[in-house]
Predict the 3D structure of the following.
Amino acid sequence: MTAPDTAPDTAPDTAPDTALPAAAAARAPAAYPPPGAPLAIIAEGLSKRYGEVVAVDDISFAVPAGQTVALLGGNGAGKTTTIAMLLGLLLPDAGRITILGEDMLRHRFRVLPRMNFSSPYVSLPNRLTVRENLTVFGHLYGVQGTAARIAELAEALDLGAFLNRPSGDLSAGQKTRVALAKALINRPALLLLDEPTASLDPDTGDQVRGWLERYRVETGATILLASHNMAEVERMAGHVLMMKRGRIVDQGAPAALIARYGRGTLEEVFLDIARGRGNGAAADGGARP
């Protein structure tokens, strides 16, 4: 399901954005993104309401190309709504989204083939086998050599034992690995990951994190990661956006956040922000300048 275009795809083009807009730059710490860095995601002034509920409240951020940035927050913080807007599944009530140089509200079909999404909470058709599901998505994305790509992913993510099994018969951990394979089928330049290692045992989770890190380095892909596994975030993400009640209330490199709050781990920082305590800007729920 996709949201309708708000303007025809034939609308006059403008030059792709290559830098953070002024309004977004004013809200972000000066050191991030690095000045002049090419940007894979620019979100400016995004807001989304569901009736009286404000799910996302005027947030702005940017993700440099080739980097991993984490989007963190408790349940109801606005992470899922933000990701849905980035994917074009929801239209923002206000704001602008630029993905890989394209305005997502006007030209999303130009960029959708170059991005993908993984979540263990989104089920694939249960009656289709794993191979059949991956084949369908390969064709949808126009992947050349779909069978070879499936074989490559099956080896990398250890899917071989259940490639011909109906997807509905898989364990939770197997479904997580298949969801990752689906997200990687088109070799995306932008990968949105929601709990990518949920339900995986520690050994398999570690292997998947290593594989994702290698994929980013080797292909130059950009990753936006939403996870409640703070050790995973510390390992994979170079920058963290902390959300609370629909707003970005703090951000920084994991080590910088840990130092700012005087804590030993990112999980302790997460709890400080969630519970409104600590030395950071989010202790009172306010955004950093």
About this structure: Strands lie at 39-50, 53-64, 68-73, 94-99, 102-103, 115-118, 190-194, 222-226, 239-244, 247-252. Confidence is low (pLDDT under 50) at residues 1-30, 282-289. The two ends are 36 Å apart (CA to CA).
